[in-house]
Amino acid sequence: KVQEWCRDHKQLSDIASREPQIAYSAYMYGLIKRWNYVCRTTPGVADRLTPLEQVTRDEFIPAIINRLFSCTDELRNIMALPPRYGGLGIPVMMDMADREYKFSCRATKPLKEAILKQVDNYTEDWRVSKGVKTEITTERNLFYRQKQAEIRQELESTPLAKLMFQLAAEKGASAWLTALPLKEYGYLMNKQQFSDAIALRYNLNLKDSPKTCTCGQKYSANHALICKLGGYVSLRHNSLRDTFAKLMRTVKCNDVQTEPVLLPVDGLQLPKGTVLGDQARLDISARSIWNASERAFFDVRVF
Fold first, then answer.
1. DSSP sequence for 122-167
2. Are 233 and 225 in contact (CB under 8 A)?
3. What is the rounded distance in angstroms from the CA atom of residue 55 to the CA atom of residue 9?
């Protein structure tokens, strides 16, 4: 059976080399569920799942990241965590098999006893079942928090990697990762977008990126976002401006405008650097922000 799973896993890895986001979603919401079921219903299978981990390390993870590299134990432990804890939700099956089997035995203990006693009319006590499930969820989350704390401790010597790991575990930071790749809602990412997003999540070098920026400085993902020659500063600024304007229209603000022309400032003493021409503009204007008819102006700044 494990060999059959390995063949499936390799086929999915091949798909991941072309469509990594779709393959990742198929793994998270399909393939891994089958493996979890066997782990929860069959004792002593941990050692037999080693081939699956080899395929995961050697083929699947490099495929979704779109690069050939040797996955370190440190990075593998991070990726084994659920997305909400800063990982990718790609577990090491040998480590979780026995634990999930014990959890399953606890959750199904009343049903097992009823079957052994040949109870004719079994009625589940939902209060007891709910309490057991809550305990299991609490213990599982405690296990992941302990793993997360251990990884943070290991990353103390690399402050940037530690910061990236903490940011990946922030609330909402993994929404793009766990969303289904639905094209009609704009959730579908192409190969480069998905691979680059994971690289940025874990502070990996972007594939095929130059060593030196056009401006002469050393190239990095952070520099690309702040370099005046790249255009990303303007793109980020305009995206925030348009989002705020859309939100203002959603909450029924009146006369919402982007880049409204300001009144002439002839004869006024203004701070150095102020644009004094007739085309001076701010980013957004709207009425009914502070008072019913008063017009308010807003300036968006990106650092």
1. ----HHHHHHHHHHHHHHHHHHHHHHHHHHHHHGGG-HHHHHHHHH
2. yes
3. 7
**pTM: predicted TM-score of the whole model, two decimal places:** 0.77
List pLDDT tens digits, range 55-90.
999 899 999 988 777 788 888 899 999 999 999 999
User: Is the Cβ–Cβ distance between 295 and 255 less than 8 Å?
Assistant: yes
Structure tokens at 296: 């308010």
Kindly provide the residue ranges of all beta strands, DSSP E only, lying in 185-269, ordered along the sequence.
254-258
CA distances from 9 to 51, 63, 72, 179 (A): 10, 12, 20, 21
Encoded tokens for 127: 């209060």
- Other beta carbons within 10 angstroms of residue 236's beta carbon come to 15
> Which residues contact residue 271 at a Cβ distance below 8 angstroms, ignoring those fewer than 6 apart?
none
Residues 205-232 pLDDT 10s: 787 788 888 888 888 877 887 888 877 8
Tokens representing 162 are 């530690």
Contacts of 157-161 spanning 24+ positions with Cβ under 8 A: 160/203, 161/202, 161/203
What pLDDT digit, counting tens, does each position of 120-131 carry?
888 888 888 899
Length of the chain: 303
Question: Nearest 5°: phi and psi at 211?
Answer: -80, -30
Please state, in angstroms and rounded to a whole number, the distance separating the CA atoms of residues 10 and 255: 56
Give the dihedral of Cα atoms 199, 84, 23, 41; nearest 10 deg.
140
- How far is 98 from 91, CA to CA, in rounded Å? 13
pLDDT tens digits for range 147-165: 999 999 998 888 888 888 9
In this structure, what DSSP letter does residue 26 have? H
- The whole-angstrom separation of Cα 133 and Cα 285 is 52
Alpha carbon 101 to its chain's center: 28
β-bridge partners, 212: 218
